[in-house]
């Protein structure tokens, strides 16, 4: 209850959309991104940008995404943007040179950079432009003039090692930066080291995304160490990299400081049991309001599930749990199910698909979540559940069948010698008691 009061009310998705529409209706947001993705010529640019010419307009945010500007259209935009640059606080130039030859795209970027130089922006989105180092440097004048950025998006931009260094070199200050996103780039270890320098000098950072960026152990350790300076972090997304165990352990030392963390995405990082256990132990002692925990695809076995379960047990605000594509088997699944039994009234989604589960693990998980008041989906597909086990689980969800995900990829004849003893009957209760005795479960008062 205390944690709820501390956090205060949170807007629902629908409320955010309504608020955004209201803002647009007040003439603050100018957005041409709607409709099909298309090239625009000078004549179309004149027509599209006409509202920006109106004297006394109050636009503070522009979004040119999804429309591809060539040189002629850029020259039309140039004087228009010059006339309103002092009032702009948010600029979205994501995906605005699609399909243009490199030389033309770079020149367009340079035109926009020069005309917007000196804008006092809080938000800048340059995603989906295949920038690379040349593109980053084409925006040099704009980037060098930004001292008050709060949000910076460079996703799907071909951010290589050299491009990451250029970003680090050009932005003069990130002291106010709250959101930094580098998703889907080719950054690699050396690039991650450059990004870590940005992170290190962003003490206000709340949302950091560096997923699918080809970062290995050295880069992961550099990022982990830099994140120790970001005590206000609320959302961390490092999915789909090649961190390995050591980077996972290093990251666990940073997680201890994140009291405000609400969502952590650490799937497909090659953490294995040692890395996963270190992270789970760190999260158990921090992040009291954690809502999303994603550690899918990390080769976590039943051995590592005890620490995970102990962590999950105390995260009573948890809404989504994703441990898919691991090797938890029945033993691990039962520990996770036990951790979810008490409380967890906000839980909506649990995914333990592709974990070599059989009848006992599937049944225990189903029993643990089926009566949660707001629960939406249990995914246990891609396992080795017997036909009898499938029938039992479906019977538990007979009054709410939509809460049970598809089981079309389940293989009741799957090979798994370690669990042969569980295939026909239930789970040995004495053995289960032994496996659960050391699990730290907080009971409700």
Mind explaining what this structure looks like?
It contains 18 helices and 15 strands. With 445 residues, it is α/β, with parallel strands linked by helices. The protein has a 13-stranded parallel beta sheet with strand order 1-3-5-6-7-8-9-10-11-12-13-14-15. Helix 10 packs parallel to helix 11 (217-226) and helix 14 runs parallel beside helix 15. It is elongated and about 70 Å long.
Feature tags:
445 residues, 18 helices, disordered N terminus, disordered C terminus
Short description:
With 445 residues, this protein is of the alpha/beta class. 41% of the residues lie in helices and 10% in strands. It has 18 helices and 15 strands.
Helical proportion?
40-55%
Rg on CA atoms, Å: 25 Å
Beta-strand percent range: 5-15%
For the largest beta sheet, what order do the strands appear in spatially?
1-3-5-6-7-8-9-10-11-12-13-14-15
How does the overall form come out from the CA principal axes? elongated
**N-end to C-end Cα span:** 12 Å
Please tally the β strands and state the result: 15
Count of DSSP-assigned helices: 18
**Low-pLDDT residue spans:** 1-25, 416-427, 432-445
Q: What structural class should be given to the helix and strand makeup?
A: alpha/beta
Mean pLDDT: 90
Main beta-sheet annotation: 13 strands, parallel
């Amino acid at each position: 209850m205390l944690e709820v009061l501390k956090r205060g009310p949170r807007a629902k998705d629908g409320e955010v959309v309504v608020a955004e529409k209201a803002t647009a209706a007040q003439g603050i947001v100018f957005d041409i991104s709607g409709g099909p993705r298309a090239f625009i010529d000078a004549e179309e640019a004149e027509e599209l940008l006409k509202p920006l010419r109106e004297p006394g307009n109050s636009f503070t945010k522009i979004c040119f995404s999804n429309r591809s500007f060539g040189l002629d259209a850029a020259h039309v935009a140039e004087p228009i943007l010059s006339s309103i640059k002092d009032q702009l606080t948010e600029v979205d130039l994501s995906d605005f040179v699609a399909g243009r030859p490199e030389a033309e795209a770079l020149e367009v970027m340079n035109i926009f950079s020069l005309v917007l130089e000196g804008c006092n922006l809080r938000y800048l989105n340059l995603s989906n432009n295949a920038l690379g180092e040349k593109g980053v440097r084409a925006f040099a004048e704009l980037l060098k003039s930004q001292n008050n950025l709060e949000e910076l998006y460079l996703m799907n931009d071909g951010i290589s090692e050299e491009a990451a260094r250029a970003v680090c070199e050009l932005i003069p200050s990130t002291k106010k930066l709250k959101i930094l996103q580098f998703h889907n780039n080719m950054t690699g270890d050396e690039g991650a080291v450059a990004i870590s320098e940005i992170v290190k000098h962003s003490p206000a950072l709340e949302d950091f995304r560096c997923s699918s960026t080809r970062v290995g152990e050295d880069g992961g350790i550099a990022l982990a160490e830099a994140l120790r300076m970001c005590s206000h972090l609320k959302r961390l997304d490092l999915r789909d990299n090649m961190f390995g165990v050591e980077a996972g352990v290093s990251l666990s030392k940073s997680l201890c400081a994140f009291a405000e963390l609400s969502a952590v995405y650490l799937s497909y990082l090659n953490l294995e049991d040692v890395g996963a256990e270190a992270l789970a132990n760190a999260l158990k002692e921090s992040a009291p309001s954690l809502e999303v925990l994603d550690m899918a695809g990390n080769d976590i076995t039943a051995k590592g599930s005890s620490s995970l379960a102990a962590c999950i047990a105390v995260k009573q605000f948890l809404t989504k749990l994703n441990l898919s594509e691991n090797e938890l088997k029945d033993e691990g699944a039962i520990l996770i199910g036990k951790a979810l039994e008490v409380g967890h009234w906000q839980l909506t989604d649990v995914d333990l698909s592709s974990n070599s589960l059989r009848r006992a693990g599937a049944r225990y998980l189903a029993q643990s979540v089926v009566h949660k008041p707001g629960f939406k989906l249990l995914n246990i597909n891609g396992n080795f559940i017997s036909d009898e086990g499938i029938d039992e689980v479906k019977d538990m969800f007979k009054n709410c069948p939509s809460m049970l995900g598809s089981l079309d990829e389940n293989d009741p004849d799957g090979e798994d010698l370690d669990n042969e003893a569980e295939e026909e009957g239930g789970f040995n209760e004495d053995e289960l008691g032994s496996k659960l005795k050391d699990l730290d479960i907080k009971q409700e008062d």
